[in-house]
Design brief:
The complex is a heterodimer of chains A (about 450) and B (about 475). Chain A is an alpha/beta fold and about 450 residues long. Chain A has 2 domains: about 270 residues, no CATH class; about 55 residues, no CATH class. Chain A contains 10 helices and 21 strands. The longest helix of chain A has 17 residues. The radius of gyration of chain A is 21 Å and the shape is globular. The N and C termini of chain A lie far apart (about 45 Å). Chain B has one domain. In chain B, a hairpin with a 2-residue loop joins strand 3 and strand 4. Chain B has about 475 residues and is an alpha/beta fold. Chains A and B meet through strand 20 and strand 21 of A and strand 23 and strand 24 of B.
Chain lengths: ~450, ~475
């Protein structure tokens, strides 16, 4: 760009210098050569790509000065204890602290016998290289962060690998805890979910900080739903309120598959969440949900892309933000209907509940439609609590603070109601509540 | 009439591609008395300024704008890459036959007059207009305001006359609503502007009939850069209409206007555009109004012609209870990209704005809605409502929607909705079994889609719009 100073090598890599990367590779002595090679290629991309700039449409309205990656370094093996998992009955759990395995409850032998795998990513690198090659970070980075996705791939230490073979159904959710500890720590949580044809699985990611210190989380999760598969994914993001969080989600939906993903954003000083849904074959359905509580001077930056690549596919997005104090939110969503993706049914809705005179919401709901026989609608609203509802509760003698909370929960309930698991619904509601009472 | 370089035949062979331009697609050979040559540099600007015998401040304004124009990049990081096909060195920036517009049609040179007669301008003037300005390439050839209206103190002149004869009124507002550096094309216009209307309506005067300007591009490789400034003083009311056509050349033509509106306390301005440039015109226009307390600015913007239109009429709602409205109709046919929209900048309490946009994409046409709604910190009671509907006619038609909505604070209500649909097969079937052809049924359906907006046009324009849509829809099915 004319007029801007060229970035120096230090600006481009922050705390993630070639020396730090070499040390990271040295910490993976048992990893196979192809895995290390992939990481080297990712690091080279990370090093070469520019930081996002003001003229990048994918970063419009973002506070770029908050996306600094210097002053962080990859986590040292910790000895802090991992936070308690969510109180949800599960089929299996996996915990990670600073990227290293920190306890697991394995999947029932009956499921394991049918081929269900719930393991660490490094185990899968050794045992299922062909699955990783096919699905790990395999989708395009279309939402503005190829640099940070490359950073993730270069530094990811370990993560969750969940594989459900054809026709197998795992009823209870699989819970994955990703925890970070220590000031200045960078973590790279990863969850890979592969549901083969007609399989069914439910996965919950829980991101938390052990100590409330300033951390950098650069995470990714890949969801793959084969023909007729059903995947339910939920993430509760509860990083410390000082944390910089970048998370990249990719969802691939094959023929007649259904994927529901819900992201509950409660933590971080600045959080960016990119979510890409690709509807690749007829009959696929992707439901994209999010609930965000933004307070203090925090910024939540959500970028979504629903790509309809085949006829007769459906997507439904509902992102709700409650904005307190001097918080900011950005919702930038795009529905793309490819030529020939006739009979697409796509919906996109962003609702912002303004709870403070200092809060700021930005909505960029977008459509790019190249087929005519479609039903595509989007809507965005930003408004305060309905004064009539407020008045009604007041007239019933409910104190203003309690009334406000009721109305905020009512606002979120429309999203949470879509969860199939009542257990999970209750656990997430409790997490949101704790955010208000804290 | 032998010198008419007419391409009507092509329009007949391919009714979808060119028929909307048919009414304006003719050209008479001209000789120009003033010609700034091809390409753009400081001497071009000096030439324009000296021909117009401008005051030193205007000359300086132009030269500064030229520097800004050169320093600004094309906005291709978000806009269409087609912009890169504009060759600024191959454009003629100023062409005119004379500087002073004529007050009667009899005085207008015959070769210019027959152009406007063919377009029906003198007839419209007699029928329902309070005043007309007819611009031919760089300068107005004709400008007249009915005596009754001028007696009320209404000033209706072109920009050259306005700056020379009424600087005390126009200098105060000139370039204030749209600063030179607003974007690359507003800077270009500020450097080489010529023509356009300067209108002042005194306090309390309600102009009962519309004022109209008609813009005609006649020369090939020409750039038209009209500059319009309309000031409605306290409590005044005005409706202004503009129309435009150009013949279809084999090379691209550039039209880049700047239009500034100022509505003082309680004033009302309605600005109606029916844009029907031929399909080789780059139409890159900046339009913005400044609405003071309790005033109202309404843009009715209808885009049918051009190759690429980029135009987002805006209202800066500066005074309490000011109201802004944009009604946008766009029709994109094969080879056309209508990139239109609206900007609503709320800057005072209790301001309200409405945007209704309807677009129709035919064949491989592409219609884009781009919008900004901005409500800054510590205001109260602001409202915006935006609705965008897109209709896709053929399987390969394209539409995009890119709104950006920023709301600060908890005392506002903002709502945006958009939908995309195709013509209902059931409707078409019903009309066909009542005896309409598929084409007629399609036209009727499309007209129904925009009917509630078209009704807001003055009758003469809405009839014209319906006719244009009927023509555009011919041959679009089957």
């Amino acid at each position: 760009m004319p007029g801007t100073l060229p970035e120096t090598a230090a600006d481009l890599v922050g705390g993630f210098t070639p020396e730090v990367f070499a040390a990271h590779l040295a910490s993976l002595p048992s990893a196979p050569a192809w895995w290390l090679e992939r990481k080297r290629a990712a690091y080279a991309r990370f090093e070469a790509l520019p930081m996002p700039s003001r003229t990048d449409e994918g970063w419009r309205f973002s506070n770029l000065s908050g996306v600094r990656i210097d002053g962080f370094s990859p986590a040292e093996p910790g000895h802090a204890r991992s936070p308690a998992a969510l109180e949800v009955e599960s089929s299996a759990t996996l915990s990670f602290l600073n990227g290293l395995p920190a306890g697991a409850a394995p999947v029932a032998p009956a499921l394991a016998a049918r081929g269900v795998v719930v393991s660490t990513l490094l185990e899968a690198v050794a045992r299922h290289p062909e699955l990783l090659r096919e699905h790990f970070m395999a989708q395009p980075q279309k939402l503005g962060s190829p640099k940070f996705a490359a950073l993730h791939e270069a530094f990811v230490r370990d993560g969750a690998f969940i594989y459900v073979p054809r026709g197998v159904e795992v009823e209870k959710p699989i819970i994955v805890v990703h925890a970070a500890a220590g000031a200045g720590t960078a973590v790279f949580p990863h969850t890979l979910v592969i549901a083969e044809d007609n399989a069914k699985v439910s996965v919950v990611d829980y991101f938390a900080s052990v100590d409330g210190a300033r951390q950098f989380a650069c995470g990714a999760n890949d969801l793959y739903a084969g023909h007729g598969a059903k995947v339910a994914y939920a993430a509760a993001q509860c990083w410390s309120l000082e944390t910089l969080s970048l998370q990249f989600n990719s969802t691939v939906v094959r023929r007649d598959a259904r994927v529901q993903s819900l992201n509950v954003h409660l933590g971080a000083r600045q959080a960016r969440h990119e979510s890409l849904s690709q509807l690749q074959a007829p009959g696929g359905f992707s439901e994209m949900l999010a609930v965000t509580v933004a307070s203090g001077a925090h910024e939540f930056d959500q970028r979504t892309l629903q790509i309809h690549q085949a006829p007769n596919t459906k997507s439904d997005l509902l992102y709700k933000n409650a904005l307190l104090d001097a918080s900011r939110t950005i919702f930038s969503g795009l529905i793309i209907v490819d030529p020939d993706a006739q009979k697409t049914d796509a919906y996109q809705s962003n609702r912002n509940l303004m709870l403070s005179d200092d809060a700021e919401s930005n909505s960029l709901p977008g459509l790019e439609i190249q087929a005519n026989d479609v039903r595509c609608t989007h809507g965005a609203t930003s408004s305060r609590i309905d004064p009539e509802q407020e008045f009604y509760l007041k007239s019933r003698g409910i104190p203003p603070k309690a009334a406000n909370e009721l109305l905020i929960f009512g606002f979120f309930e429309e999203v949470l109601d879509r969860l199939e698991s009542e257990d999970l619904h209750a656990a997430l509601r409790a997490l949101i509540r704790s955010r208000f009472t804290a | 009439m032998s010198e008419i370089t007419d391409t009507l035949e092509t329009a007949i062979e391919n009714p979808v591609s060119g028929i909307d331009q048919a009414s304006g697609n003719f050209k008479y050979e001209m000789t120009y008395d003033f010609d700034a040559g091809t390409g753009l540099n400081e001497r071009t600007v000096d030439y324009i300024s000296s021909v117009k015998k401008e005051a030193p401040w205007v000359h300086e304004f132009r030269q500064n704008a030229l520097k800004t124009f050169f320093s600004k990049p094309l906005p291709t990081h978000w806009a269409s890459k087609d912009l890169e096909n504009i060759n600024f060195d191959k454009i003629r920036y100023y062409l005119s036959q004379g500087l002073k517009p004529k007050r009667t049609w009899d005085e207008v040179p015959a070769d210019i007059k027959r152009t406007f007669e063919r377009l029906g301008i003198p007839e419209q003037e007699r029928k329902f207009l309070a005043g007309v300005e007819a611009q031919f390439d760089s300068e107005a050839a004709y400008s007249n305001i009915k005596e009754a209206v001028s007696k009320q103190g209404v000033i209706f002149v072109n920009s050259t006359e306005g700056l020379r004869e009424h600087p005390e009124i126009f200098r105060k507002y000139f370039g204030k609503v749209i600063p030179t550096s607003d974007n690359k094309f507003s800077a270009l216009n500020s450097a080489v502007f010529s023509g356009g209307s300067f209108i002042y309506v005194p306090p309390g005067v309600k102009v009962s009939h519309p004022l109209q300007a008609y813009f005609r591009i006649n020369a090939e490789n020409f750039g038209q850069f009209e500059r319009t400034l309309i000031i409605c003083d306290e409590g005044a009311e005005l409706t202004y209409m503009e129309g435009c056509t150009a013949p279809k050349f084999s090379t691209a033509t550039l039209h880049s206007a700047v239009v500034e509106l100022v509505a003082l306390k309680g004033a009302k301005i309605q600005y109606i555009t029916v844009q029907n440039w031929s399909s080789n015109v780059f139409n890159l226009v900046t339009k913005r109004g400044l609405a003071h307390e309790e005033s109202e600015i309404k843009w009715i913007d209808c885009n049918i012609g051009s190759r690429l239109t980029m135009k987002y009429p805006g209202v800066v709602l500066r005074g309490r209870k000011a109201r802004g409205e944009v009604i946008s109709i766009a029709l994109a046919n094969d080879g056309q990209h209508q990139d239109t929209g609206a900007k609503m900048i709320h800057a005072a309490d209790e301001t309200t704005s409405t945007v209704v946009s309807k677009s129709i994409s035919v064949g491989q046409g592409r219609a884009t809605y781009r919008g900004v709604v901005h409500i800054p910190r510590h205001l109260k009671g602001c409202k915006n409502n935006t609705e965008c509907d897109a209709l896709l006619i053929n399987t390969n038609s394209r539409t995009d929607t890119y709104p950006a909505i920023t709301v600060r604070g908890d005392k506002h209500a903002v709502q945006h909705e958009a939908s995309v649909s195709k013509v209902s097969a059931e409707q078409i079937f019903y009309m066909q079994q009542r005896g309409l052809t598929e084409g007629q049924a399609m036209s009727l359906s499309v007209n129904g889609f925009i009917n509630d907006l078209a009704r807001q046009f003055p009758m003469e324009y809405s009839v014209e719009l319906k006719r244009l849509i009927d023509l555009e829809m011919e041959g679009s099915v089957g």
